[in-house]
Amino acid sequence: MLTQAWKHPLISVVLPAFNECEALPLVIYAVLTALAEEAVRTEIVVIDDGSTDGTRETMRAVRAQHPNVRYLRFSRNFGKEAALSAGLDASRGDAVILMDSDGQHPPSLLKAMLERWRAGHEIVCCVQQARRERLVKRTMRRWYYNMMEAGGTVMIPPNAGDFRLLDRKVVNAIKLLPERNRFMKGLYSWVGFRTEYVPFEAAPRMAGKTKFSWLRLFGLGFTGLTSFTVMPLRLISMAGIVISLLSILYGFYLLFEHYVLGDHPPGWATVTVGIMFLSGLQLMALGIIAEYLGRTFEEVKQRPLYIVAEDSSEPAADVPALARAGGASPRDEASN
Fold it and tell me: pTM of whole model > 0.70?
């Protein structure tokens, strides 16, 4: 017999936001409209990642109309990965849906995601189809994920972002991970669980412009590389071996040229170029090693991922408490 919690599960929708005061009301209304057709209880958790626009005032007006919307504001901008982590910490649902707050993740897919969750999948991951990207960005993305797959221990789908549904047991498992340098797409894959992939096409932004610059994208990508693979270190080692072999071969060639052909090359240009090349390679190797040491330094300090300056509400009394990681979800209880 189905339990009451399973008949009407609580679904949490996490919306990380940075300067999205124009799009947020539209996205929240679209999400509430889409979930109103489902037999679920709903809470929306908006994580304000240190916005400097009118997000705070906008959310006050939204909460006046929709009490099931919760608003958390960071003391400063901590980044999207921290905002996603805060959303998982604050959510109380039997399943948690992560979405962007610009409207590019279509709320019309929520029904299909819930159906797959009810069918037994613990992660429902939306994979973007037909990405409209320039050749340079598309090539760099392909190389990046090939490197992640070759040197990592988990498989991260190239076109899967943060638009996904996580069962409560998955959320609790991710919350157990103590690391500070977070690459959420890697963490979703690392914890495992049964995953279903749903294709989708990104919708146009409902309002505003993107706040995710190339610099932020590069920083996030490098965090992923240093968090889930040692491939950069292996590439440097391979480069050192190749250069050493080439140096030995070139030394034999110079001996042959001197003693067999009788030539006396001056060698100044060769020495200069060789020194500059090896110096650059050494500095690059030290830089990559320093990145890994820097990540270790950040982890050792054990600073919190984020600081909440404002929380609009306290946990409701009728909302079930969080289970331990790996604990049974309402679906599992219903099957017993």
Answer: no
